[in-house]
Design brief:
13 helices
Length: 274
């Protein structure tokens, strides 16, 4: 049974709160090995590493968290602490300054750290609505979250997937395009951008996206499956998105046939951005 990365991160968070840092590390390393880790997972793994004295590994994970979300204030602060513990004082000071600068920028009239917490609360409520089958309500909550945190692309990615499942391919396309423009290295978002183009009836755009992605990720069997889908179907009348989600992007498929275009993955994981 494939356990979602969000569920594993929640389990790791429980182990962390019980001060079982090695247990948290074990779960979070499993998430990382799956290729589905998001910024929150890297941050928590880095923090766990630091608390058991493995500072170099902690720094590597915190670097990944900040690379995924440059405005992740908590990750920047913990990164500065680890740098200081490693004797890299000047870099630590720079990281602290960066965290302070981000933390002072207001959003919708709220201090940044308050806006980030509110965004995460909206996302949590959106997850709850989604689990209950309330797609429209889930979409509203994620839109509210993004109004407070427009650079939180992990939340935008989840919103895009929910929009696809709700049959709103054009709206999903817009969100995936925003992610791809802001973070060209986010290849999973690029794959979903191509899927949104296809489901919106724009086969030419989908082909262009997927052919470029095939050059960047030749080992991903889904891309060949998507291109084969274009070759054998009428792109002017695309099928509806599948009802049940397969494994998220990046999951190795071994010798199994490539999965169908993915729907929304369930789960409540989200970045913690105070």
């Amino acid at each position: 049974m494939d356990v979602s990365p969000e569920h594993l991160v929640e389990q790791a968070r429980e182990r962390f709160e019980l001060q079982d840092y090695y247990g948290a590390i074990h779960l979070l390393e499993e998430v990382g090995a799956s290729g589905r880790a998001f910024a929150d997972a890297h941050h928590l793994l880095g923090l766990s590493y630091s608390l058991v004295g493995r500072h170099e590994q902690a720094l590597a994970q915190l670097d990944r968290a900040v690379a995924l979300n440059p405005r992740y204030v908590e990750a920047l602060i913990h990164r500065a602490i680890v740098l200081n513990e490693l004797g890299r004082g000047e870099e630590a000071d720079a990281a602290f300054r960066r965290a302070s600068e981000i933390g002072g920028e207001p959003r919708l009239g709220f201090p940044a750290h308050v806006a980030a917490k509110l965004a995460n609360q909206h996302a949590a409520l959106g997850d709850a609505y989604f689990e209950a089958g309330g797609l429209a309500q889930a979409i509203e909550q994620y839109q509210a979250a993004l109004a407070l945190g427009p650079a939180f692309h992990d939340l935008r990615y989840k919103l895009g997937r929910i929009l696809l499942q709700a049959g709103r391919a054009l709206d999903a396309r817009e969100h995936f395009e925003i992610i791809v423009r802001a973070r060209p290295s986010y290849l999973d978002a690029a794959a979903m951008f191509g899927l949104a183009c296809y489901l919106a009836g724009d086969g030419l755009a989908a082909r262009a996206v997927w052919e470029e992605l095939r050059e960047r990720r030749p080992e991903d069997p889904r891309i060949e499956a998507y291109l084969a889908l274009l070759d054998r179907t009428d792109v002017s009348a695309p099928p509806a998105p599948p009802a049940s989600p397969p494994a998220p992007a990046g999951t190795p498929s071994g010798a199994e046939p490539p999965p169908a275009p993915p729907a929304v993955q369930r789960g409540g994981g989200r970045e913690q951005k105070p």
